[in-house]
Amino acid sequence: MAKSIWWVVVQQGKLPDFYALCYVDWLNLNLRGAAGFINGSLASCWSEFFVVTCWMLWKHRCSTIIDVNNAFRGDFLSCCVRLTREYVAEFNKPHVTVSQTSEVTSRWQKLSLGWIKANSDGVVRGIDILASAGSVIRDDQGRWVYGYARRLGRCSVLMAELWAAHDILLAAWDLGFHQVQMETDNLDVARILQGSSDALAACSLVDVILMILARQ
């Protein structure tokens, strides 16, 4: 698959030189932009495209070996180009500088007696937009109580995060825990759970999550 991609994007007259380099020189050439070797618009973002494509090739190879049913089956080159352009566009966006800073402690914080902590996360694979959700519950001493991970099919990152929150809150209730400290790394989900966001206000999943939270 890799050769078929290089065959399309590298200038035909440059292919012999492209393949003749030793491994280290070949990597250096591509990571520095491969000036004079590349066709079309990719010449301006070749190093980014090269990294994305190598990553995608590695993921495809792993999927083919580990789980052939999840191997990528779409237009591989178009997917690499799309991901590269999304990355470049995001990287070039103006970023807001926040003058006020705060220190965040990353270690686990002990809870009050009788409370549990639920950590949830949802992810979406960029290749085929397949989503997964996972969560874990720990008691007030940090001991593992419950955890799970499951596939969701195709959905957005926000929906994956919401499903993860829904599943772990429902599991906590079913296990008899009513004093739950919920943690998520998604600000939109946190605001939805706190009732301070109208995002997905018409979503039935959000309604169910809010109903679980409202239980006494």
Can you walk through the features of this model?
With 216 residues, this protein is α+β, with helices and mostly antiparallel strands. The chain has 2 domains: 2-91, no CATH class; 116-214, Nucleotidyltransferase, domain 5, CATH 3.30.420. 44% of the residues lie in helices and 16% in strands. The chain has 8 helices and 4 strands; from the N terminus they run H-H-H-H-H-E-E-E-H-E-H-H. The chain has helices at residues 2-9, 15-20, 23-31, 46-66, 76-91, 157-174, 187-193, 204-214, and strands spanning 116-124, 130-138, 144-154, 180-184. The protein has a 4-stranded mixed sheet with strand order 3-2-1-4, with helices on one face. A hairpin with a 5-residue loop joins strand 1 (116-124) and strand 2 (130-138). Helix 4 crosses helix 5 and helix 6 (157-174) runs parallel beside helix 8. The longest helix has 21 residues, at 46-66. The chain is elongated, with a radius of gyration of 23 Å. The model is unreliable at 95-105 (pLDDT under 50). InterPro entries: RNase_H-like (IPR053151), RNase_H-like_dom_plant (IPR044730), RNaseH-like_sf (IPR012337), RNaseH_domain (IPR002156), RNaseH_sf (IPR036397). Residues 119-198 form the RNase H type-1 domain. This is RNase H type-1 domain-containing protein.
